[in-house]
Amino acid sequence: MEDIIVVKLGGGASESLDQAFFNQIRKWREENKKIVIIHGGGHAISKMMEHLGIPVQMKKGRRITSKETLDVSKMVLIGQVQPEISTKFQKENIPLIGLNASNAHLLEAVPTDDAELGFVGEISRVNTHFLQEILTLNAVLLIAPLGLDTNHNWWNVNADVAASAVASALNADTFYLLTDVPGVKKEGTLLKAITPFQIQDLIEKGDVFGGMIPKLKSAVGASQNGVQKVYITKQIGVVGTEIKREVGHSDAFISHL
């Protein structure tokens, strides 16, 4: 679908939305762009878990999710983070609609292959028809990164992974993965563009690690699934690092991760 911009808003970034962010959203709306935001909330989830005395465990940048952790994630993402972001949009007089997997089975999930992650899922289907209908209301869409399976069980989903699935399903024109750094760096130098095999090399050499790994995997996946422009950056509208499409090799790279 043309003229759609998907933005993955990290948990840390969502706490410090500045005027430049909202100015860019307004500019896109004036250009008749449709905007879909998938928000994270990792910092807020970890903070709540620590408050409740629940151990925080991570594996390769992904949260190990027990049933208790899943309940906290749902509570924080839908009950705290999403309303906080929505309120900021309201203050800026930008119409916004908050959504989650329970709206028309928006994000369908299946368990990840790694059983050690617990109640962590991958997106198997996006209800694009529903999203396209809601987009006609001319509001920004804000989606929580949670999924439901066919038996209506909830799954925690990495926000980068969820955003990539939405961008791919909508055939978005542009996909921004916002993070707290300007882009992907090698030895302190910002890389303006990078290919999947260059990414694999950075991971193997330990130049990127932790939460950047699922972010890079998600960026590559979106690029290989038809999203025209994919950027990892600190600010929307700023290129940061562009993920370049690489024909014939990236599927193996994605599987390797």
From TrEMBL:
Organism of derivation: Listeria fleischmannii 1991
NCBIfam families: argB
Gene name in the database record: argB
Subcellular location: Cytoplasm
UniProt site (Transition state stabilizer): K8, K215
HAMAP family: ArgB
Lineage: Bacteria, Bacillati, Bacillota, Bacilli, Bacillales
SUPFAM superfamilies xref list: Carbamate kinase-like
Protein name: Acetylglutamate kinase
Major subcellular location class: cytoplasm
Enzyme class label: transferase
Family stated for the protein in its record: Belongs to the acetylglutamate kinase family. ArgB subfamily.
Any one Gene Ontology cellular component term annotated for this protein: cytoplasm
GO molecular function annotation: acetylglutamate kinase activity; ATP binding
Reactions performed catalytically: N-acetyl-L-glutamate + ATP = N-acetyl-L-glutamyl 5-phosphate + ADP
Metabolic or biological pathway, per its Swiss-Prot or TrEMBL entry: Amino-acid biosynthesis; L-arginine biosynthesis; N(2)-acetyl-L-ornithine from L-glutamate: step 2/4
Matches recorded under Pfam families: AA_kinase
Known function: Catalyzes the ATP-dependent phosphorylation of N-acetyl-L-glutamate.
